[in-house]
# Entry
Amino acid sequence: MIGIFFIPFNEFTGLSFLGEYSNEASAYFFFVGSFVLLIDILLSRKTVIPFNYTPIIFIGVYLIWIIISSLINLPEMSKNTLKGTGGIERFFRQFISVFITLVLFIYLYINVLRKWSIEKIFYRMRFVFLLSFSFVFLYGLLEIMYAHFGMTFLAPIIKAFSYFPFYEFPNYFSDRISSVSFEAPFLAIFLITVAAWMFSYILTEKTLVRFIPTICVLILTYYSDSRTALIIILFQLFLFVLILMRQQVYRKYILLGGGALVLLGVLFFSSPKGAKAAEEITEKIERLDFQKNLLNNVSNRSRFGMQYAQLQVFKEHPIVGVGLGQQAYYSKYHYPPWAATSNYEFKLWYKNPNVRNFPPGYNLYIRILAENGIIGFLIFALIIATALYKSIQLYFKKDVIKNILGVVLTISIVGIAINWLQIDTYRLYGFWLFLAILYAVDRNQSNKNKVVLDGQ
# Structure
């Protein structure tokens, strides 16, 4: 639970030997939890291996395919070199990283959650997410008041947060709110992960307080200035409203609330302050036009340029790909001029041999296509599809808690799946945690069915 609380904390200098996990606070607790679990298994000689659960089966198949794909590419992999790192070394580093997220940590989640009732899973998980989000919102609110409302006297209070574990003040203030996360895109990942859990208070609570978590999510989303967060979280909220509209008890309130918001919006935007706010909102909407801003925005050029290069790699190696962790060795020959020319990011980072970090792919699906081919992509798609299917099944259960949990998990999985369109890491812990929750719920139901059958 402590590890889950610290998921948004990645603005600190960690232990360098942990590589990609070095500045992710939650990983430290997951590593400790995994070690304790290993000791418990050795002492008790009892454990649970979820071989009979469809999404877990596909994870196993995916890992096997990664090995097969990389073995096929071994001759070329041994010749690859970039930024002082050979292809085989890169493969082993990446495979260990993937194994930690897809096996070690999932195994930990499952062995903790399988002992809990469905009610305990839902309420305790939501409470931990609420605690974490509350801390993130408090810090983010201070940033908003400083950066957007000129309350510079808050600077010492903001800097004092550096005394909190796993956070270091970055020594600068930005208009893009990131709270305790490294940058706004990392805050966006956390907001997408917890949004549906915060929405669920509308379903379970009775007073007006139930709307506060949702409002707070929208406030941070707006001021983070993250296009990804704005698009995905608004889509998640749209899905949530659609689900509520299916229930007669909420339909009237949604229509009344929607009408009231429209009326208040017209009155507000008619005022002088409203006109200024309208200009800011219009500017944010215009920034969502990727085609219009493609050549004017350096970040967009880098992002789409990297994705374009990986697609060229996929076209050259469509079936098995080039091997895990290898796409950067091939993508460097396909950077399009419209992305790389007069782009300081390529000069300072991606093409700079003195910067050891590998260029990001900016899209996990395209990365998988390039590295593991169409076969690997289809297997990974099945992991997502089966997890989504399980969550939708849960939504249609008659039990109220299962129904709500199904809503939360479905919206969360959809949000994270969309987010993978602009980030190329497997380390979105929320998805794998939610998959473990689905397994625990399924096991819990299976055990109840066994009790009923035994009773007969």
About this structure: The two ends are 38 Å apart (CA to CA).
